[in-house]
Specification:
It is a single chain. The chain has eleven helices and ten strands. The protein is an alpha/beta fold and 299 residues long. It has one domain (6-296): NADP-dependent oxidoreductase domain (TIM Barrel), CATH 3.20.20. The strands form two sheets. The chain has an eight-stranded parallel sheet. A two-stranded antiparallel ribbon has the order 1-2. The longest helix has 17 residues, at 116-132. The radius of gyration is 18 Å and the shape is globular.
């Protein structure tokens, strides 16, 4: 079972450190993954409007038999829904698809520096939802220090969470330190480095799950490489949302509390950082940039 510790957000709400991500899980795959995760003890489920699976996630939650108040559900506002009134309408639509009366964490999906005025208006809508009690916490995704400073300088509430690409190849030490200084929990997306598989690479890269350094550590502890990486995130005080649709892997990914990595283990994994993100650049990302990335990837 998943005995994930709870992280205390800056508004005193508690969030499980380990959850299930459902990016690119479609149809019954998402519903069944959510049911498998909850049956394995997961209590944090992370989805987004852009994933187009909120309805399936909602069905999985409903079928789990676990009381709503025991779960921590996150969803996100997509770029074409930015703006104050548009964000409020989008939130209502997400709630309807999820079949819920509230969400625990609502996030802005990207900072959109090219139209930060709309980002600020969206954040003010999220602040209103928090004041109304329709969300328990609000946060952001993919915000750099500059984005956070501008946001916090022009709005009232400090984000509770900043969900960013983070894995041993791109460990974002500076961003983690910035988030900690501001009282923001760092949450890792693509925590196992799977995002490298979503785009063409100029040079081949060894998948993190096959890296010899991690494989050696895993062998020494009698664990899988995925478990070692998840444990690395947890020991750095991060929240982590690995994605899987396989019930056995879902259960295994969270079974990381019967061992600990040594400081030399942690240092060796830290040293794998190459500073190269796999996902989009937050300073460039908008809907036009997304179209360009998809065209480049042949989508």
């Amino acid at each position: 079972m998943n005995n994930s510790p709870l992280l205390t957000l800056n508004n005193k709400v508690k969030m499980p450190a380990i959850g299930l991500g459902v990016f690119r899980a479609a149809g019954d795959e998402a519903s069944l993954a959510v049911q498998a995760a909850i049956a394995s003890g997961y209590r944090l489920i992370d989805t987004a409007s852009a994933y187009q699976n909120e309805d399936q996630v909602g069905r999985g939650i409903a079928a789990s038999g676990v009381a709503r108040e025991e779960l921590f559900v996150t969803t996100k506002l997509w770029l074409n829904e930015y703006g104050y009134d548009a964000a409020l309408r989008a939130f209502d639509a997400s709630l309807g698809r999820l079949g819920l009366d509230y969400v625990d964490l609502y996030l802005l999906h990207w900072p959109v520096p090219g139209n930060f005025a709309a980002t600020l208006e969206s954040w003010r809508a999220l602040e209103n939802l928090l004041y109304q009690g329709r969300v328990r916490a609000i946060g952001v995704c993919n915000f750099t220090q500059t984005h956070l400073e501008v946001l916090m300088g022009r709005t009232e509430i400090v984000p509770a969470v900043n969900q960013v690409e983070l894995h041993p190849y791109f460990n974002q030490l500076d961003q983690r330190q910035t988030n900690a200084r501001l009282g923001i929990i760092t949450q890792s997306w693509s925590p196992l480095g799977g995002a490298y598989g979503y785009r063409p690479l100029e040079k081949p890269i060894t998948p993190l799950l096959e890296h010899p350094v991690i494989a050696a550590i895993a062998k020494a502890h009698g664990k899988t490489t995925a478990q070692v990486i998840v444990r690395w995130h947890v020991q750095h005080g991060l929240s982590v949302i690995p994605k899987s649709s396989n019930p056995e892997r879902i259960a295994a990914n969270a079974a990381v509390f019967d061992f600990a990595l040594s400081q030399p283990d942690m240092d060796a994994i830290d040293a794998l950082d190459n500073g190269n993100r796999a996902g989009p650049d937050p300073d460039l990302f908008d809907l036009d940039y997304l179209k360009m990335l998809n065209a480049r990837a042949g989508k």
